[in-house]
Design a protein that fits this description.
The chain is mostly helical. It has 5 helices and no strands.
Length: 171
């Protein structure tokens, strides 16, 4: 009888361990999506910087701050993925590559004007906000991870609002 009880406990332990592994995989997947969206933000803002005219030095500074912010967010997310034992995502999302190609086409036809560049940046920030909202819907994040995601999302919202205000100021 004792052996049977041990065996039942062993099965329960294996089930809990499997659930824990699946939870860690889901955490890593969610956090890796955020790493990729931040990589997209870096590339998107770098692209925007490249499209600016020399007289747009103040926008260059704003966009460089966003590049730095995205790098910081990525650096905060990488250790969280490492703790799960999963690999850290590299590169960018396919949707980000498509979006940047669209930015190139739009910029070509709009003559790289400030308004078009800011509109593109606003669309990119909206995409980042959606990714962060999806992450917050993930029930597998730890409290610490969730707090980071909430903070990042709040900062991206501020960034998006600033970009929109700059665009709106152009009339």
């Amino acid at each position: 009888m004792f052996y049977l009880n041990t065996s039942v406990c062993g099965i329960q332990f294996k089930l809990k361990r499997k659930e824990s592994i699946m939870n860690l995989e889901k955490q890593a997947e969610t956090l890796n999506d955020l790493i990729l969206i931040n990589n997209d933000r870096v590339q998107g803002y770098q692209k925007a910087i490249d499209e600016l005219q020399p007289e747009d030095y103040e926008l260059r500074s704003v966009f460089q701050e966003r590049v730095n912010q995205s790098g910081q967010f990525r650096n905060e997310l990488v250790p969280e993925v490492s703790r799960t034992g999963e690999e850290i995502a590299e590169g960018t999302m396919v949707s980000g590559k498509i979006y940047r190609a669209w930015m190139e086409v739009k910029a070509f036809f709009s003559g790289n004007n400030r308004r078009a560049i800011l509109e593109n940046c606003e669309v990119g920030e909206d995409a980042a906000l959606r990714a962060y909202e999806e992450a917050l819907n993930c029930e597998n994040l730890t409290q610490e991870q969730r707090l980071k995601v909430i903070r990042h999302r709040a900062e991206i919202q501020i960034s998006r609002d600033h970009i929109k205000a700059l665009r709106d100021a152009l009339g």
